[in-house]
Design goal:
Strands 1, 2, 3, 4 and 5 form a five-stranded antiparallel β-sheet that branches. The protein has one domain. The chain has two helices and five strands. By secondary structure, it is of the alpha+beta class.
Length: 165
């Protein structure tokens, strides 16, 4: 197109006075968008770290409960009631806030429950009507593990002891 009094190539060139503010606004919008994304990523990272910390403390409490259960299962012998004294796990230097611990579950109505005895099938020797009779004594044991910052985990297991008379 031609206009009288205006050079033809001048119409095709952008006017630098009209475009100066557009570049600044575009850059500011892009910076604002990047800032929002950065803050959002930071918040997500911090939340993930908190969740990971809670999960780790929960695992430590569960491992303490399992250690207590293992200690209680060692005491399952014959018809004697299993026992568990409170204890802790790990090396003191590994846990600056205190060692994880275990105990019989204080919230359980009966932390060590006698489930009764039953004959052990196939285990009785009967020679001329005499011989030992074997029984399985069954127990249910409830153990609580604690992590120093207050996380608790409970474990329950049934155990059997073979004993003869």
């Amino acid at each position: 197109m031609t206009h009288p009094g205006i050079e033809p190539d001048r119409l095709d060139r952008p006017n630098p006075k009209r475009e100066g503010g557009i570049a600044l606004i575009t850059v500011m919008l892009i910076l604002a968008l990047i800032s929002v994304l950065a803050v959002s990523s930071l918040e997500t990272t911090m939340r993930d770290q908190q969740v990971a910390g809670v999960q780790m403390r929960d695992r430590v409490a569960f491992q303490a409960a399992e250690a207590g259960l293992a200690a209680a299962l060692v005491s399952v012998t014959g018809s004697n009631t299993p026992t568990l004294t409170s204890g802790s796990i790990g090396v003191a230097g590994d846990y600056p806030l205190g060692q994880p611990s275990y105990q019989l579950d204080p919230d359980a109505a009966s932390p060590v429950e006698n489930l009764g005895a039953q004959p052990a099938p196939g285990m009785s020797l009967n020679i001329n009507g005499n011989g030992p009779k074997f029984q399985l004594q069954l127990w249910r044991i409830h153990v609580e593990g604690s992590e120093p910052r207050g996380m608790n985990a409970n474990v329950e297991a049934a155990a059997a002891a073979l004993w003869g008379s």
